[in-house]
From TrEMBL:
It comes from freshwater metagenome. One of its GO terms (molecular function) is 5'-3' DNA exonuclease activity. The lineage of its organism: unclassified sequences, metagenomes, ecological metagenomes. Signal peptide: none annotated. This is Unannotated protein. Coiled coil: none annotated.
């Protein structure tokens, strides 16, 4: 779930984010242990060595550590295999349900967009029927233009967005050079962004 334009000082939002972040450490320890049991020698120190200062610990950093140790070639390979949601090495972590996350983002004055809902190679995808419950929770938009969506999936998502009067967004999903994604390879139409921004309780984007 993408939370945009919310008030970062909102205490309930901070509490939810803190809980989600703090649970990632024991989760990482468990994933590393599973990899070690399978003969893939990687450590928390290896992960910390590649994690940028201040970043929230996550699978991308474990992927980078595996790349550094030459077990895999890229983050993309990791998320298609070793670190995929269906992998034997995957460990879930505490996270709010999509509906709870949406409600909190909206309560904090922001807007909520569901991220790449049909990206099947990452694991479980969102079923078309699920959008109604997200809409009722306050969903504002759907990330349609994404490299992990086929042309037919994009067409289906655009139709859903039109039917439910949701904003259509696009994203490169760029998280640094560890992935194949190119910065700006997908973007959001300015008219769609203006519509999305108008749904927040305050204009928080600085325009140069």
């Amino acid at each position: 779930m993408l939370g945009l334009l919310f008030d970062g000082t909102d205490p309930n939002m901070k509490r939810m984010l803190d809980q989600t972040r703090d649970d990632r450490i024991p989760r990482m320890v468990k994933m590393i242990a599973l990899l070690n049991e399978a003969g893939i020698e990687v450590s928390m120190e290896d992960v910390e060595a590649v994690k940028p200062s201040g970043a929230t610990l996550g699978r991308p950093h474990l992927a980078d550590a595996l790349v550094a140790k030459k077990f895999i070639a890229s983050r993309d390979e990791a998320f298609k295999g070793l670190l995929n949601n269906d992998s034997q090495f995957y460990v879930s972590h505490m996270a709010p349900t999509p509906e709870v996350a949406i409600a909190q983002v909206r309560a904090s004055g922001g807007v909520a967009v569901i991220a790449h809902p049909f990206a099947s190679y990452r694991g479980e995808v969102l079923h078309s029927s699920s959008f109604q419950s997200l809409l009722q929770a306050g969903l504002n938009g759907i990330e349609v233009d994404h490299r992990d969506h086929s042309s037919s999936e994009r067409a289906t998502l655009r139709a859903i967005a039109e039917e439910l009067n949701l904003v259509v967004t696009g994203s490169s999903d760029y998280h640094g050079t560890g992935k194949l994604n190119l910065l700006g390879e997908n973007s959001t139409d300015p008219r769609q962004w203006e519509r999305l921004e108008s749904m927040a309780n305050e204009r928080r984007v600085v325009k140069l």
